[in-house]
Amino acid sequence: MNRPPYRELQETRLQLQSAEAELEDLEKQIRTFEAQVDTRLGVLLDQLSELNAETIELDDRIRKIREQRLYGAELMSYMDGAPQPTRPPNLNDLPPMGFAQRSAIHSTVEGSVLAGVEVPGIKVLYRKLARRYHPDLARNAADRLQSNQQMAEINLAYNEGDLAKLMNLAGMVTPYGVELPPSSLIPGILQDKSLTDAEKVELKLKGIRQQITQLSNLPIVRLSLEVKLARHQGRDLLYEMSSELRYKVARKTAERDYLKAQIRASGEFKADG
Fold first, then answer.
1. How far is Cα 68 from Cα 168, in angstroms, rounded to an integer?
2. Fewer Cβ atoms within 10 A, N terminus or C terminus of the chain?
C-alpha cells in the first residue's frame, strides 16, 4: 500500500530537520576545535608561514645575485625586461596575512553582501581556510596531499580576490559560519515555481547532506578525532604538534638567517632587510 503524498512530505521534512540539526552540531564542533587549534598553534603557524615566504624571497635574491655575477649586470638588466620563468610553487608555503598589495582587493569585498546577507570579508574566510587546510596540521600523507591541493586553490583565489571561489572551497555555498535560510543552499533551483513542495524539501535535504559529507571529510575533522583519541591515551596531541612546529620554526629561522648572511657577504643586503 502506497503512502499518501502528504505523509511522505512530512517524513522528508522530519529528515530535513534532523539533517539540519546534525549539520549545525558538526559546524559548532568544527568552530570549537578550530578555535582551540588557533589558540594553541596559530602563532606558530603564522610564524612558519611568514618565514616560508621570507626564505623564498631571499632565495630569489641570491639567485639573481649569482646570475648577475655569471652573466654581468648589463646582460641581466636586458634580461630583466624579458618574461621570467615562474618558480614552481612550494605547496607547503602559505602567504603571510595582510599583504599591503592586497589591500585594494580586500577593500572591495570586506563587509560585502550576498543575497541580502552580510558575509565575512575575504581575509576572514581565507584565514579560516588556511587554518583548516594548513599542511603542517596534516597527520598523514593523504591529508597532507589533500591540504596541499586545497591550499594551492585557496592561495590562488585569495590572490585574485575571488570571494565566491573561497566560499566554494569552504565546502558550502555560503561562507563558513554564515547561516542562510535552507532555500539558499541551492540558489535558483528552489525558486523554480514548477517544483512541488516535496521536491523542494528533497533538494534542501540533499544540499544539507552534501554539506555534512564535505565537512566530515575535512582534514581538520580527522585531526580533531585524533586529538580525542590521543587524550584517551593520556597524550596531548596539540602539545606534541606545537613542539614539532617550534622545531620547524627554529630550522626555518636558521635557514632565513643563513640566506641573509649570504646576501650580506655579497654586499647586496640592505640595512633594513
1. 44
2. N
CA neighbor of 38 nearest in space, from 155, 113, 157, 124: 124
- pTM recorded for the entire structure: 0.67
d(CA 105, CA 164): 13
Residue pLDDT, tens place only, 78-124: 555 555 555 544 444 444 443 333 333 333 334 444 444 445 678 88
C-alpha to C-alpha distance for 232 and 226, rounded to whole angstroms: 10
CA distance 251 to 140: 21
What gap in Å lies between CA 88 and CA 148, rounded to an integer? 14
For residue 114, give the H/E element and its range: strand 113-114
Between helix 141-159 and helix 122-132 the angle, nearest 10°, is 170
- Residue 33 CB partners (closer than 8 Å, separation 6+): 220, 223, 224, 227
125 contact partners, CB below 8 Å, separation of at least 6: 163, 166, 167, 170, 175, 176
Taking alpha carbons only, the member of 161, 78, 150 closest to residue 112 is: 161
Contact 185, 173 (CB under 8 A): yes
Contact, 122 vs 108, CB < 8 A?
no
Q: What are the domain boundaries of the chain?
A: 21-82+90-266
Alpha-helix runs per DSSP H in 108-218:
122-132, 141-159, 163-169, 197-216
Instruction: Give the model confidence (pLDDT) of 5-19 as tens digits.
Output: 778 888 889 999 999
Going from the C-alpha of 125 to that of each of 79, 152, 160, 267, the distances in angstroms are: 39, 15, 14, 42
